[in-house]
Design goal:
Layout: E1 3-8, H1 14-26, E2 30-35, H2 37-46, H3 55-66, E3 73-75, E4 94-100, H4 102-110, H5 116-126, E5 130-135, H6 142-154, E6 157-158, H7 172-187
């Protein structure tokens, strides 16, 4: 079972993270999931969902919502330092932060590791593993751009939540699926959300 770390932080675009989680689980991936306090607020603001803050309750809620088992979906709290994602010896080979707030980008670029999301990203960088960051912010300041450049130079992939329109999307869900499909392609996870160019 392919293992992927997925974190949601407090940028707009909660739909991207939730849809990505759904698709990873549907593809049979084992997911180590983390969500910041700010992201919980964004989810409540942008969707009809009110996610529980306690990791055990959140795991139960998400397992029911996405019809998966606790063995497939592992939810970690912000200070669960014994979680596999906190160490290079236990972390999955791929991590995605979707959406990624500019504050999280800053912390990762500087190696802050103040919480488990930042530590897991730091592990991905130091172990030379795949790290995908999905910012959703505009306009971007010089600080944001510098952090993105620094992270790219460190080996991370910056994938702004910028959906394409050449497929003539008919709904917001189509726009979300465009971005999620590109993330899945980079992860090497099979997807049928959006045909690749030329297909």
């Amino acid at each position: 079972m392919r293992a992927v770390t997925l974190a949601m932080t407090g940028a707009s675009g909660a739909q991207y993270g939730l849809r990505l989680l759904e698709c990873l689980l549907a593809a049979g991936c084992e997911v180590h999931f983390m969500i910041s306090k700010a992201a919980l607020l964004v989810v409540a603001t942008e969707t009809d969902e009110a996610l529980p803050a306690r990791p055990s309750l959140l795991q139960r809620y998400l397992c029911e919502r996405f019809s998966c088992t606790p063995e497939q979906l592992k939810v970690h709290g912000p200070e669960d330092w014994m979680a596999p994602v906190a160490s290079g010896s236990g972390a999955p080979s791929s991590m995605v932060v979707c959406p990624a707030s500019t504050g999280t980008l800053s912390a990762i670029a500087c190696g802050a590791s103040n919480n488990l999301i930042e530590r897991a990203a730091d592990v991905a960088l130091k172990e030379r593993r795949q790290l995908i960051l999905v910012p959703r912010e505009m306009p971007l300041s010089a600080i944001h751009l510098q952090h993105m450049l620094s992270l790219t130079q460190m080996g991370a992939t910056i994938m702004p939540a910028s959906p394409g329109f050449y497929r003539q999307p008919q709904s917001v869900a189509d726009l979300v699926d465009f971005v999620v499909a590109r993330i899945l392609d980079h992860l090497g996870v099979a997807q049928r959300l959006v045909p690749r160019w030329g297909e």
